[in-house]
């Protein structure tokens, strides 16, 4: 994954945990894990709204490896929780740094007595998960402190973290943590996005993604698009750490240079344009991952892909200190020399391996270029395209027109306006209508066109203008069916928000749509504070417990359950969101499935068998953990559900008695749908 998004700097970082502190070379760290199986995650990686505050060390999919203190210090806290880091240990070091070790299977007992201490607090607080336990226990560099596990979130791994002052996670690679790696990162693509009505990319206002090809030791994009106006950029890249993982990169630099020639690798006046280094975050800024990553395109798994913004939406709130973005990362080509310019992206991983991608663009002086729509064989069509700050009306006809089409625009409390479209190609016309926050309300747009033969054609659209202030917040509605609310300070910039019936999604069998799916806009807009959406359902809808708000992931092509906060008075559901997207109310009619009982039916096991378990999966709103009931010979077993593995398990405290036993498992999902009871009869001998 990626670590630093730079535009004018290069950072060499290393990862092996040998030195830590302000002067890394003066402080030798002990590697925190018994084995060196590689990394599965880096500092600063995408985690939805937040970013990853440490590094994850692989443990080959198993638990129980020894975990060591990286340096002399004092254990000041244990944390025993079902979620989050699970079992975690915190060491305060004399240099002001704190090291954190998460997802441990168990703490060290023989020399430190930590498990005895945990049991004491479990009894005192009458819970298996007593939370934080504060103590002062000195440890030496390399001393055994615990064993790797998979407690809390995730499958087996060790989460290792370094903090300054106890509350500011910092990049371990900048403080002596090193990792042997000779493979440079991979640069997959570059996105160019024109900004504003007077900006163009290949004769259009739409952002485009250009895929790279690897040639002669670097990534190249051979296509040379024509550009005009203001542009900003997004890069897709990752670092291949081992064969299994795509991790974030350490550093990205974007340069823009004048070329003046056809050869891609020749340029002059290379100018730093954007730089960001994933050096440290605080828990007050960690929720700003959307300023770093593009929410619309970045995904953590299946597929893993990272799209880094090479621009700064909120300079005063960017989560990393060493960000540089000339003009906010927006390139105004009207101030550049016409002709070829080279975009150079340099990316480094934590070991300092460098990868380069290059692309040329041609800056043109024309404010508008011909549109390249395929010609119509017959008839005509027209459309209104929403570009956040302006609308573009496009009209195309198969036959010549008597004159250029016009659009009559009306709005309550304002005088009518006439927008004359401009020829953009053979029988192709377009026009721009800027939106104004001073003119909220519903626009009515009436297009009229007169062909040289045949009847005139007309089309009418209505477009709500809903300005939302970043300072004051506000609410946008789609009738009584849907609404979206931003609290004051939730937005980084003023926006025009909207809600429309969604067009691009799929229906999942067993999860029928209730009403419409809604496209909440602007899609992917990052938020400083969570917003709220509300969607209505029919008053006579049966079994409202089955209803929930789901998010449509257009990358993975599937629905994800969000929440089901139900207001029976307004017959609506609500959920918090971290960005606008496509959401809908679905009905979950799918029953969870119980399988893979252990011991399996008909089996014979020994008296030393230690674990009883079952797999419980659900495709809708998810398994309702309180509903799970596992019994052995009609006696309830106090097991635990692991959602990462879809597994409910019980550890047998004493050997099972010889003879025949019956295991029964029952469960339901959050929609109230019951699973078919599963039973296993087995023998112990």
Q: Characteristics of this structure?
A:
single chain, 685 residues, mainly beta, Glucose Permease (Domain IIA), Immunoglobulin-like, 13-stranded mixed sheet, 1 helix
* Tally of strands: 54
Count of folded domains? 5
The general outline is: globular
Mean pLDDT: 91
Q: Which structural class fits the helix and strand makeup? A: mainly beta
Q: Which band does the percent of strand residues land in? A: over 45%
Helix content percent band: under 10%
The major β-sheet equals:
13 strands, mixed
Termini separation: 51 Å
CA gyration radius, whole angstroms = 29 Å
Quick structural overview:
It contains one helix and 54 strands. By secondary structure, it is an all-beta fold.
Could you explain the architecture of this structure?
- This is Peptidoglycan DD-metalloendopeptidase family protein.
- Residues 51-108 form the M23ase beta-sheet core domain.
- Residues 1-25 form the signal peptide.
- Keywords: Signal.
- It comes from candidate division KSB3 bacterium.
- The structure is a single chain.
- By secondary structure, the protein is mainly beta.
- It folds into five domains: 24-175, Glucose Permease (Domain IIA), CATH 2.70.70; 186-363, no CATH class; 380-465, Macroglobulin (MG2) domain (Immunoglobulin-like), CATH 2.60.40.1930; 468-587, Chondroitinase Ac, Chain A, domain 3; 593-684, Immunoglobulin-like (Sandwich).
- Helices cover 2% and strands 46% of the residues.
- The chain has one helix and 54 strands.
- The strands form ten sheets. Strands 13, 14, 15, 16, 17, 18, 19, 20, 21, 22, 23, 24 and 25 form a 13-stranded mixed β-sheet that branches.
- Strand 51 and strand 52 form a beta hairpin.
- It is globular and about 95 Å long.
- The chain starts with 38 loop residues before the first strand and ends with a strand.
């Amino acid at each position: 994954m990626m670590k630093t998004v730079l535009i004018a700097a290069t950072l060499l970082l290393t990862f092996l945990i040998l030195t830590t502190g302000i002067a890394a070379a003066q402080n030798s760290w002990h590697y925190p894990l018994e084995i060196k199986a590689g990394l599965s995650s880096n500092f600063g990686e995408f985690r939805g709204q937040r970013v990853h505050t440490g590094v994850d060390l692989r443990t080959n999919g198993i638990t129980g490896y020894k975990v060591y203190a990286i340096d002399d210090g004092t254990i000041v806290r244990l944390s025993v929780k079902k979620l989050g880091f699970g079992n975690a240990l915190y060491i305060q070091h004399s240099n002001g740094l704190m090291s954190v070790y998460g997802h441990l299977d168990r703490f060290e007992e023989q020399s430190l007595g930590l498990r005895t201490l945990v049991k004491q607090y479990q009894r005192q607080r009458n819970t298996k998960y007593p939370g934080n336990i504060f103590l002062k226990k000195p440890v030496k560099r390399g001393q055994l402190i615990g064993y790797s596990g998979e407690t809390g979130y995730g499958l087996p791994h060790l989460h290792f973290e370094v903090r300054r002052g106890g509350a500011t996670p910092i990049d371990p690679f900048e403080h002596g943590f090193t990792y042997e790696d000779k493979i440079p990162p991979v640069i997959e693509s570059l996105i160019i996005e024109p900004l504003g009505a007077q900006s163009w990319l290949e004769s259009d206002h739409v952002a485009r993604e250009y895929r790279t090809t690897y040639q002669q030791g670097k990534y190249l994009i051979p296509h040379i698009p024509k550009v005009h106006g203001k542009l900003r950029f997004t890069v897709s890249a990752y670092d291949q750490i081992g064969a299994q993982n795509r991790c974030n990169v350490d550093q990205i630099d974007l340069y823009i240079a004048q070329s003046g020639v056809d050869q891609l690798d020749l340029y002059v006046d290379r100018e730093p344009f954007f730089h960001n280094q994933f050096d440290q975050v605080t828990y007050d800024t960690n929720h700003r991952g959307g300023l770093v990553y593009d929410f619309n395109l970045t995904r953590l798994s299946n597929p893993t892909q990272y799209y880094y913004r090479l621009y700064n939406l909120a300079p005063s709130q960017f989560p990393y200190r060493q960000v540089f973005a000339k003009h906010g990362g927006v390139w105004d080509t009207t101030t550049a020399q016409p002709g070829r310019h080279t975009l150079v992206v340099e990316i480094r991983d934590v070991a300092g391996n460098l990868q380069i991608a290059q692309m040329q663009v041609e800056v043109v002086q024309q404010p508008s270029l011909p549109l390249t729509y395929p010609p119509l064989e017959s008839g005509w069509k027209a459309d209104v395209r929403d570009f956040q700050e302006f609308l573009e009306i496009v009209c195309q006809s198969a036959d010549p027109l008597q004159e250029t089409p016009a659009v009559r625009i009306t709005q309550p409390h304002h005088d009518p306006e006439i927008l004359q479209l401009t020829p953009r190609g053979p029988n192709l016309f377009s026009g721009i209508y800027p939106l104004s926050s001073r003119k909220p309300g519903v626009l009515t747009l009436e297009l009229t066109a007169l062909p040289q033969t045949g009847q005139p054609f007309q089309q009418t659209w209505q477009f709500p203008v809903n300005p939302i202030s970043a300072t004051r917040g506000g609410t946008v509605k789609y009738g009584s069916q849907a609404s979206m609310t931003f609290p004051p300070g939730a937005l980084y910039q003023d926006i025009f928000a909207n809600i429309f019936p969604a067009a691009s999604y799929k229906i999942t069998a067993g999860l029928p749509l209730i009403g419409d799916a809604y496209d909440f806009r602007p899609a992917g807009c990052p938020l400083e504070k969570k917003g709220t959406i509300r969607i209505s359902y029919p008053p006579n809808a049966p079994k409202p417990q089955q209803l929930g708000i789901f998010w449509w992931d257009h990358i993975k092509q599937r629905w994800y359950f969000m929440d089901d906060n139900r207001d029976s008075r307004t017959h609506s559901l609500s959920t918090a969101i971290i960005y606008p997207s496509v959401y809908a109310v679905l009905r979950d009619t799918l029953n969870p499935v119980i399988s893979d009982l252990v011991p399996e039916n008909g089996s014979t096991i020994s008296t030393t068998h230690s674990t009883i378990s079952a797999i419980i999966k659900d495709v809708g709103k998810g398994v309702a953990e309180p509903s799970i009931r596992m019994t052995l010979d009609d006696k309830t077993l106090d097991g635990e559900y692991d959602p990462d593995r879809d597994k409910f398990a019980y550890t047998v405290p004493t050997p099972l008695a010889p003879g025949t036993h019956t295991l029964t498992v029952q469960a339901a999902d959050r929609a109230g749908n019951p699973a078919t009871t599963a039973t296993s009869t087995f023998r112990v001998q």
